[in-house]
Design a protein that fits this description.
Glucose Permease (Domain IIA), alpha+beta, single chain, two-stranded antiparallel sheet, hydrolase, 14% helix, Cell_wall_metabolism_enzyme, 3 helices
């Protein structure tokens, strides 16, 4: 399996790809973080104090916003706004496409529409999502085990250009959700291809890894969430 350091480095590239894939327009009162943004810049552009943005989005660390992350920049209905005083939050660091280093294991946001997934492969779950070192789940089985699409969607990435993920597929399911399938032995679908839920899309392997397994991730608005919450019991 990948070392923790390698996994974190690999997440840098994957976050950038997922953020680019998840660039659908956001609704009024929300903003999608772009490369080079800082929290203070976002607050200034939306005429809000930084502490309002921090509070509305439950940000434990103002420096940890990610490219592709969607932030609320207008007050929720019935919510009072903070005065436009100064804030001591360290909000001036430029945003880079990286994984959140101290992120606690997040569930899907409260306003996230549900998505029903099927298990992407047979096998034993050897690592579960924790939101820190593991941005998804790892399923181990024999080489060549079928890997299937967890939900219907469109293939937006098929290749091996992301270090630490081997032969990787990313499927966009709607404006909100993406899934990623890593370390495959073979990819059976191409970018731009529409796939159905349960359709075989790859074969399990050990590309860019030291054992045969599937690394599976679920992203909502560019942020990793626990896929097991959307999978049936096993």
């Amino acid at each position: 399996m990948l070392t923790t350091r390698m996994r974190r480095l690999a997440c840098v590239s994957l976050v950038a790809v997922l953020a680019a894939c998840g660039s659908a327009p956001v609704g009024p009162g929300f903003y999608r973080v772009e490369r080079g943004d800082t929290l203070s810049k976002i607050a200034r552009d939306n005429r809000q104090p930084v502490q309002n943005i921090v509070r509305w989005n439950n940000l434990s660390n103002p420096d940890s916003i990610e490219v592709g992350q969607v932030l609320r920049v207008a007050p929720p209905a019935g919510t009072a706004t903070a005065s436009t005083g100064s804030t001591r939050a360290r909000s001036g660091a430029a945003v880079e496409p990286r994984a959140t280093p101290a992120e606690t294991a997040p569930a899907a946001p409260a306003n996230a529409p549900p998505i029903s997934l099927v298990w992407p492969a047979a096998g034993t779950v050897i690592h579960r999502f924790d939101g820190k070192n593991s941005k998804g789940i790892d399923i181990a089985d024999s080489a060549g085990t079928p890997v299937v699409a967890a939900a219907a969607g469109t293939v937006v990435y098929a290749g091996n250009g992301l270090r630490g993920y081997g032969n990787l597929l990313i499927i966009k399911h709607n404006a909100d959700y993406l899934t990623a399938y890593a370390h495959n032995r073979a990819l059976l679908v191409k970018e731009g291809q529409t796939v159905q839920q349960g359709q075989k899309i790859a074969e399990m392997g050990d590309s860019d890894n030291d054992r045969v397994m599937l690394h599976f991730e679920l992203r909502y608005d560019g942020r990793s969430i626990d896929p097991s919450r959307s999978l049936p019991p096993r």
